[in-house]
Amino acid sequence: MLHIKLKKLTLPLCLCAISVLFTPSAVLAEETGPVAASKAADQKAALAKKAAERAEQKAAAEAKKAAETQLPVEEKKATEAPVPVEEQKGK
After folding, report:
1. What angle do CA 55, 58, 63 make, to 5 degrees?
2. What's the CA gap between 85 and 89, in Å, rounded?
3. Alpha-carbon torsion 26, 27, 31, 34, what sign?
4. Closest CA to 42 of 55, 85, 50
């Protein structure tokens, strides 16, 4: 007798257990949708900000490098004294 009652209770018990297991995940998925979207938007904004900062740093480094390469050339030109034409002819 007990065996027959157990078989009749197994199906409803399994259905209840399955519904209890899947219900919180469905509710949680509905609640986390907007949160996940806002987090993704924040993450994209942060990545864009980092990329802009890197581009600015790269441009500043290139400008600094270009300025450093121009300064020595200008300094060399300024330090070289022009040799008069008469001295060159005499040599």
Report:
1. 125
2. 6
3. positive
4. 50
Q: How far apart are CA 24 and CA 27, in angstroms?
A: 5
The whole-angstrom separation of Cα 28 and Cα 23 is 9
pLDDT tens digits, 18-33: 887 777 665 656 666 6
Distance CA 62, CA 70 (A): 12
Place of tokens 């005499």: 90
* Beta strand extents in the chain (DSSP E only): none
Q: Does this model's pTM top 0.85? A: no
